[in-house]
């Protein structure tokens, strides 16, 4: 029995090692071209988010790349890109809209999505190993294709789940801080009409996200009142 499971255990161990190496490489990449956020219009809203979380100060950094994006690092840091800040400085986005991105990435950190993705990544490797071996025997030639498709669908489903959860966390945090969700909704609409916005990659359909945010905001505002 142990011998039969050995290939799967080795695959899981390899996946864990690979993820840890990838996380270290990402941290190094983020460290080099990044600086602490200091922006006259945005920093006061970060302070309001910090106060709503009972934190002295959220650690938000600027990642000096031109892409429009926000991200949460494996070590818990939150980043917005220079490209996203350029939108603010050019008048293409408001401070409230960028605050919603920060709140969303804080949600990924607070909800443990980074660690959970590590576990799920290894689980997907194990599923791929077992399913791939089985289907390769039953359906030579197309078995690996079916395996990749199935694992891809599973990965996409889990990613969408995390994004909805981070959206909901951001909505709650924005309401608690008094910033509100108008910026969260309006930025999603802007991203939907813009081209090549990295922040939308791998996310659920924007209309579905907007509907979920509006539903949560209405329910929680009514409950609060």
What does this structure look like?
The chain is α+β, with helices and mostly antiparallel strands. The chain is built from eight helices and four strands; from the N terminus they run αβαβββαααααα. It has helices at 2-31, 43-52, 82-89, 95-110, 113-138, 143-177, 182-193, 206-224; strands spanning 34-36, 60-63, 70-72, 78-81. Strand 3 and strand 4 form a beta hairpin. Helix 4 packs across helix 6 (143-177) and helix 5 (113-138) runs antiparallel to helix 6. The mean pLDDT is 79.
What's the SSE blueprint?
Elements: H1 2-31, E1 34-36, H2 43-52, E2 60-63, E3 70-72, E4 78-81, H3 82-89, H4 95-110, H5 113-138, H6 143-177, H7 182-193, H8 206-224
Parallel strand pairs: 2-4
Antiparallel strand pairs: 1-2, 3-4
Index terms:
225 residues; alpha+beta; 69% helix; 6% strand; globular
Name the average pLDDT: 79
Tell me the number of strands: 4
Low-pLDDT residue intervals, each spanning 5 or more residues: none
Number of distinct helices:
8
Please trace the helix and strand order, writing H or E for each element.
HEHEEEHHHHHH
SS-based structural class?
alpha+beta
Shape: globular
Widest sheet, order of strands: 1-2-4-3
Strand content: 5-15%
Query: What portion of residues is helical?
Result: 55-70%
Largest sheet data: 4 strands, mixed
Task: Please compute the radius of gyration using only Cα atoms.
Answer: 20 Å
N- to C-terminal distance: 59 Å
């Amino acid at each position: 029995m142990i011998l039969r499971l050995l290939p799967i255990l080795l695959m899981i161990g390899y996946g864990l090692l690979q993820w840890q190496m990838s996380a270290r490489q990402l941290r190094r990449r983020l460290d080099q071209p990044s600086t602490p956020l200091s922006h006259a219009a945005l920093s006061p809203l970060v302070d309001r988010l910090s106060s709503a979380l009972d934190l002295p100060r959220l650690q938000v950094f600027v990642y000096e790349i031109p892409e429009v994006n926000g991200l949460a690092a494996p070590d818990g840091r939150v980043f917005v890109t220079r490209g996203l800040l350029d939108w603010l400085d050019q008048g293409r986005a408001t401070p409230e809209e960028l605050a919603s991105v920060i709140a969303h990435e804080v949600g990924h950190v607070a909800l443990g999505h980074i660690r959970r993705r590590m576990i799920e990544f290894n689980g997907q490797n194990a599923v791929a190993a077992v399913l791939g071996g089985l289907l390769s025997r039953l359906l030579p030639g197309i078995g690996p294709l079916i395996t990749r498709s199935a694992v891809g669908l599973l990965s996409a489903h889990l990613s969408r789940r995390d994004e909805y959860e981070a959206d909901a966390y951001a909505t709650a945090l924005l309401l608690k801080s008094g910033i509100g969700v108008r910026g969260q909704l309006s930025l999603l609409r802007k991203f939907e009409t813009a081209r090549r916005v990295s922040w939308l990659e791998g996310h659920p359909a924007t209309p579905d996200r907007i509907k979920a945010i509006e539903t949560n905001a209405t329910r929680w505002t009514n409950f609060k009142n």
